[in-house]
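Module 6 notes. Inverse folding takes a fixed backbone as the condition and produces residue identities as the prediction. Think of it as a translation problem where the source language is geometry and the target language is the twenty amino acids. Below is one complete input and output pair. Work through it position by position during the lab.
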C-alpha cells in the first residue's frame, strides 16, 4: 500500500483509511493456524472463547458468537466475503450477505469456487475472475 511506503502502488482509498484510522506495523496471533486466526479476526475473540482452536472445515464457532459482518450490517454496510474460507459454517450463516470463496489449499485456478452458494470452476487465477465482476 502507498501508506506503507510503497511508491509503486497507487492505493488512494486504502491510504485515506490509513490516515484516518490505525495502521499496524506488525501484528501477532495466539493461534497461528488458518481457522483459529480467521475466527478470531471475524469475532474479535480468542479461540478459547469463540470455540475454534484447530484447523479445518469441521471447526464451527460456538453458538451465539457475533461476527463483525453482523455489526457492519447493523451499521448499514453491505457485507461480502471474498477469498479462502476455512470455517465449518458458511459465510452467509455467519452474517455475510454475499460470498465468493473456495475452501481448501491449492492453486487459484482450475478449482471449484462457491459464488453465493453455487459451484463454479475458476479457469483462470481466481483474483482475475473477481476483478472481472466489478
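Target side of the pair, the amino acids:
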Amino acid at each position: 500500500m502507498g501508506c506503507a511506503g510503497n511508491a509503486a502502488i497507487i492505493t488512494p482509498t486504502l491510504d485515506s483509511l490509513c490516515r484516518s484510522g490505525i495502521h499496524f506495523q506488525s501484528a501477532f496471533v495466539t493461534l497461528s493456524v488458518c481457522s483459529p486466526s480467521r475466527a478470531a479476526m471475524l469475532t474479535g475473540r480468542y479461540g478459547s472463547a469463540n470455540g475454534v482452536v484447530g484447523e479445518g472445515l469441521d471447526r464451527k464457532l460456538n453458538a451465539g458468537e457475533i461476527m463483525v459482518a453482523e455489526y457492519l450490517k447493523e451499521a448499514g454496510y453491505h457485507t461480502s466475503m471474498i477469498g479462502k474460507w476455512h470455517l465449518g459454517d458458511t459465510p452467509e450463516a455467519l452474517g455475510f450477505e454475499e460470498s465468493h470463496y473456495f475452501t481448501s489449499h491449492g492453486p487459484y485456478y482450475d478449482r471449484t469456487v462457491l459464488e453465493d452458494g453455487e459451484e463454479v470452476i475458476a479457469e483462470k487465477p481466481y483474483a482475475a475472475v473477481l476483478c472481472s465482476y466489478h
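Reference fact for the lab report: DSSP finds five helices and four strands in the chain.
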